[in-house]
Write a structure and sequence with these properties.
This protein has 2 domains: about 190 residues, 3-Layer(aba) Sandwich (Rossmann fold), CATH 3.40.50.300; about 240 residues, no CATH class. It has a 6-stranded mixed beta sheet with strand order 2-3-1-4-5-6, with helices on both faces. About 40% of the residues are buried. Helices cover about 45% and strands about 10% of the residues. It has about 475 residues and is of the alpha/beta class. Bound molecules: guanosine-5'-diphosphate and magnesium ion (MG). The site of guanosine-5'-diphosphate has 20 residues, from helix 1.
């Protein structure tokens, strides 16, 4: 079935967030020009929502109606006869000289409304209901097109959402949508399309397709984010450096830290790209999550505290922060080595590297890997980042931040335990792409299975509900 293309005129007073709304809906940070200077958008600019590569919804950003009060008076003066339809008067106005001069800006808006199937009327919900709003609504109400009022800035404490709803109901506008363009909220996006659908029966299949597509898009985004994170965690958990127990240890430790930092950064870059944000939206120092405030190094014990991750012994002391060191000095008897081997057996069972590792130990080598507390910190930061990206609107101007409420919900993650599958990764150094020298034979299928298991586990925890809890394994 061929779906009808829907045209939407996005109208409203200057600075109510029309351009921002379109950026968020299209996930396009570069659309139009956003600023809090008045009247940035001076002409109509179009964009589209693509479904299967086809533009199913055309969206038209319009300049703000600067003088709705004057225009309403003007329209009233054009109406000589109470019987004449308003839409005819509006059309006459659009052809009159006034539409080229005094009301040029307003005429652009009205022309776009008449050329569209529906108007979304964007309101800054922090505003009081003023004369200019009443008159804008009055004019739109006379344009013979359905209007969906969109209350924007509802996340602001100053939003007068209830007052606005009350007023809109009084002027017969009941299909109101609440929105905040800097916070992606799947529910409000869905409401916008659903309410539009209630007013436009003939576009029902189109709007249904868009709603379904959005749900799929979101699920794919969550799935792909979880895949990227699982891949990172497996690489790091299975990373094992074997180094002689002499003076080279410090160098080896630094190298390991460096590779892990770089690996984390690669994951961050991939996540930002996936979510269509700019690389510099999250960067600067060694991976801050809150701009500046979390600019803490993964291997700094302070970072662990910040995330409420408990670390004992060496990691807390700082000397070998972030790394587990299994130093095997000489003098180990074969019996002790065998006992150790038995203990390790649980970890390395099935891995062909077992024998080599044991031999290395006997030769006085040391094993270095990222310790559990740091693994957990690594996972938590990426989980925080993904959650922040999932709720970040593409109209956001600030660096990635976490609001207090979200941070509270994320407390739940702090009690999160490293999944079993990562312990399994520990015993399979051949799963890590960070190891310079591949250890043992590549257990590719084992890695794939583990990664998938971990990814699905993480995925189920990134539900859209902001209070979603981490799932137990
Ligand atoms: N906090 C917040 N800021 C917003 C929101 N919508 C828009 N803004 C900001 O408000 C200003 C005006 O937005 P813009 O999209 O240019 O408004 P327009 O003139 O209606 O196109 C910009 O500084 C935006 O970053 C919102 O929902 N919440
Ligand atoms: Mg604009």
């Amino acid at each position: 079935m061929k779906l009808a293309k829907l045209k939407v005129a996005v109208v409203g007073h200057t600075n109510t967030g029309k351009t921002s709304l379109l950026r968020t809906l299209t996930r396009d940070m570069t659309f139009g020009e956003v600023s809090n200077r008045p009247a940035t958008t001076r002409h109509v600019e179009g964009t589209a929502l693509l479904i299967d590569g086809k533009p199913l919804i055309e969206l038209y950003d319009t300049p703000g109606m600067e003088d709705s009060i004057g225009l309403l008076e003007h329209l009233e003066s054009l109406r000589q006869n109470r019987q004449s339809e308003w839409i005819k008067i509006i059309r006459r106005f659009l052809e009159s000289p006034a539409a080229q001069t005094r009301f040029e800006q307003e005429a652009k808006v009205l022309r776009q409304v008449l050329g569209s199937d529906v108007a979304w009327y964007v309101i800054d919900a922090r505003d009081r209901v003023l004369g200019k709003h009443r008159d804008e609504l009055e004019i739109l109400g006379r344009s013979a097109k359905p209007v969906v009022p969109v209350l924007n800035f509802v996340a602001s404490p100053e939003a007068k959402t209830a007052r606005w709803r009350e007023h809109l109901a009084r002027v017969n506008m009941h299909a109101v949508v609440e929105f905040d363009t800097v916070v992606i909220n799947e529910t409000s996006e869905q409401h916008l399309f659903e309410k539009t659908r209630t007013l436009l029966d003939s576009f029902r299949p189109t709007l249904d397709a868009v709603i379904q597509d959005r749900i799929r898009m979101r699920a794919n985004l969550i799935r792909a984010s979880a895949d990227l994170l699982a891949d990172l965690l497996i690489d790091v958990a299975s990373y094992l450096a074997i180094t002689p127990s002499d003076g080279q240890q410090t160098k080896a430790m630094e190298k390991l830290r460096q590779s892990v930092r770089q690996r984390e950064q690669r994951c961050v870059t991939a996540l930002l790209e996936l979510h269509r944000f700019r690389p510099d939206d999250y960067m600067a120092q060694d991976l801050p999550i809150l701009d500046g405030e979390w600019g803490l190094d993964l291997f700094n014990p302070e970072s662990l505290k910040q995330f409420g991750v408990k670390a004992g012994g060496a990691a807390a002391a700082g000397g070998m922060a972030g790394l587990a060191v299994d130093a095997m000095t000489g003098g180990l008897t074969l019996g002790a080595a065998a006992a150790l081997g038995a203990a390790l057996g649980a970890l390395v069972s099935g891995s062909r590297t077992h024998g080599k590792r044991l031999t290395d130990r006997l030769r006085g080598y040391t094993e270095l890997r990222v310790n559990d507390a740091t693994m957990k910190l690594l996972a938590l930061r990426q989980i925080e980042l993904i959650r922040a990206l999932l709720r970040r609107g593409h109209a956001s101007q600030d660096k990635i931040q976490l609001n207090a409420k979200a941070a509270e919900a994320d407390q739940a993650w702090k009690g999160w335990r490293l999944p079993e599958v990562l312990k399994q990764a520990r015993a399979n150094p051949d799963w890590s792409r960070l190891n310079e020298i591949p250890l043992g034979t590549g257990q590719t299928s084992g890695r794939l299975t583990a990664m998938d298991r971990l990814a699905r586990l993480l995925e189920s925890s990134f539900a859209d509900d902001p209070t979603s809890q981490p799932k137990p394994e």
